[in-house]
Write a structure and sequence with these properties.
The structure holds two protein chains of two kinds. Chain A is α+β, with helices and mostly antiparallel strands. Helix content of chain A is 54%, strand content 7%. Classes of the chains: A alpha+beta, B alpha+beta.
Amino acid sequence: MAAKPKLCYFRGRGRMESIRWLLAAAGVEVGPVWEKGEGLSGQERSDGRLLFGQVPLVEIDGMALTQTRAILSYLAAKYNLHGKDLKETVRIDMHADGTLDLMMKVAAAAFKPPGEKEKSLASAVEKAKTRYFPVFEKILKDQGEDFLVGNKFSWADIQLLEAILMIEELDASVLSDFPLLQAFKTRISNIPTIKKFLQPGSQRKPPPDSHYVKVARTVLQF
Amino acid sequence: MMASKPKLHYPNGRGRMESVRWVLAAAGVEFDEDFLETKEQLQKLQDGNHLLFQQVPMVEIDGMKLVQTRSILHYIADKHHLFGKDLKERTLIDMYVEGTLDLLELIIMHPFLKPDDQQKEVVIMAQKAIIRYFPVFEKVLRGHGQRFLVGNQLSLADIILLQTILALEEKIPNILSAFPHLQEFTVKISNIPTIKKFLEPGSKKKPPPDDIYVRTVYNVFMP
C-alpha cells in the first residue's frame, strides 16, 4: 500500500490550499502534516528537502516536491485529472492558471496593511465578476456539459469551485449573474470526495486571519 | 500540407513572451509576431474574444489561442519533447522551471520600478540568484556531471535557466563567478545549434528593455 503524502506548510490556506483541494477531490488521505512555525524548528529548510528553501512541500512517491504549480501538475497527472491528450491538458492548464492567479490575489491581500487590504479584496471580487467568471459561464453555456474540459471531471473544475467559494466569502452575491456557475457549484460540491472535504473536520483551512498572517511573516521573515 | 507557423501576440520587447520565444527557437520552430503598439490593438483582441482572460501573452498555435505563460511553455515543451521522458522527470523539470521563473519575474518587473528602486532591486536579484537559485543548479550539475539539468537531454529547464542567466549577466556581469558548473552549462547550452542561432543578430530574440519598450507597455496596458 502506498504511503500517504505528507504536507508541510503553515496552518492556513496560502499556497497549499489548492493542493489540499486536489488531494481531497482525488480521495487521497493525507499523512502527517508538519505545520511550520508552531513549535517546529527550521530543520526542513536546511536538510535539502526544500529545493529553493520554500514551502509548500509535499512528500509523495519518494520525492520531495516544492513549487505549487509543479506539485499541482504532478498530482493532476497522477490522479487522472489532467485531460486525455495534450490539447485537453493545455486547456485545463489555462483554466487552472487563471483561477490560481485570481486566488493568489486574495491570498496576497491578507498581508497588506488595512485600507490597502480592503481595496485589494474588492479588486479581486471585481476581476472575478468581470474577467474570470464570465469566461467560465460562457464555456459551460457553449459546451452544455457538466465539466469544463473533455466532459470529464478535472483539475480545472476543482480549482474553479475553490475560487468560487473563496470569492463568495468576500461577496455572497457574486454568482447572481451566472446561473450556470451556480449549477456548477452545486454539482461539483456534491461529488462525494468534495462533499466530505467541505464538511468540518477535513483538511480544508479557514480564510486567513491575523494569527496566520503573523506566523507566516515570522517564519518567512517579511 | 505545411502547418502554419505559430503567431505571437505581445509588445515588441521581452516581457513575459521572451521565454516563449526562447523555447520555440530552441525547438527549431519558426514563428511570426504581431506586435502590440497601441491600446486600440489590445482592445480589438479583447473585443474579438481572442484572449481567454483578456490578457497577453497569447500564442496562436495548432488551431488554438493559448494564454497564460506557463501553460504556453508547457504545451510547447510537451509537443517538442522538452519535458522529460516520464512524469517524474517532467515534475523535476517543472520544479526547476518554476523556481527559475520566480527569479526571472524580478528581471521582468525591473524596468517598471521607480528609478530610485531599480538599483536596490539589482542587488536583491543578485542575492536571490547567488544564495537561493544558483547553488541548487550548480549542485545538480556537479552531482550528475551531465550537460543538461534533467535526464541527460535538453529540456525546458535548461532553456529557461540559460535565458535567466544571460539576462542577469547583462546587469551583473560576474554573477556566475562562484559557479564553475553553471559557467560551463552556459557555454554548452549556448552552443546548441538552434540556440546558437537564436543568440546571433537577426533572430527574434529581443534586446534588453529600454525606455521605448516601457512607454509602449504603459500605452497598451494602462487604463
